[in-house]
Specification:
By secondary structure, this protein is of the alpha/beta class. About 30% of the residues lie in helices and about 25% in strands. Helix 2 crosses helix 3. The chain starts with 5 loop residues before the first helix and ends with a strand.
């Protein structure tokens, strides 16, 4: 789980990635995606709201620069597909999804900032199936923090960070938060 409120930044414990390290991780992941997808043929990226969208756009840029063609990017909000949708105290904020390409037969790379329990990825897979039948779906995450509750693993990982109870990962991206960084933060309680 990630946090993005201003008060969570004041709780930061340690910088896990600075802007240069974050970029290096994304460039490396882009090359891994190219290798896995045999040169990006029929490849499209789908970023999960919110920070996964920014990361997907950057990955698509780096992949496109390497292969010499534009890589389509879609945006996915899985709020209504989550299994804890009805358990929340407040009404959820649903952001728009936009998949501006044909999904059928494509190799999709689902992009998120942090992989934790796997429940958000499960929701994303359910949501993607409503758009069609891709030939394959791979998962790319900037941070894998462990603690899986479902049998889901990432194909492309920027960095693995095993967190303890009472810790979380805070991913910040320039377009959304004004900086590129990843922090390990203590949670109150």
């Amino acid at each position: 789980m990630t946090a993005s409120s201003p008060e969570s930044v004041s709780r930061k414990q340690a910088t896990v990635m600075n802007a240069a390290q974050l970029k290096r991780a994304l460039v490396r992941m882009a090359h891994e995606i190219i290798e896995e997808s045999e040169g990006a043929k029929d490849l499209a990226l789908v970023g999960m709201q919110t920070r996964g969208v920014d990361l997907a756009r950057r990955l698509a840029k780096y992949i496109g620069e390497s292969v010499g063609s534009e890589i389509p990017v879609g945006v996915l909000d899985v709020t209504l597909y989550r299994d804890d949708f009805r358990d929340r105290d407040k009404a959820p904020v649903v952001k728009p999804s936009d998949i501006p390409f044909e999904v059928d037969g494509r190799t999709l790379v689902l992009v998120d900032d942090v992989l934790f329990t796997g429940r958000t990825v499960r929701a994303a897979l359910d949501s993607l199936m409503d758009y069609g039948r891709p030939s394959a779906i791979h998962l790319a995450v900037l941070i894998d923090r462990g603690h899986r509750q479902l049998p889901i693993s990432a194909d492309f990982v920027g960095q693995e960070i095993r967190t303890l109870e009472g810790q979380e990962i805070l991913v910040r991206v320039k377009d959304e938060d004004g900086e590129d960084a990843v922090y390990l933060v203590e949670t109150p309680g």
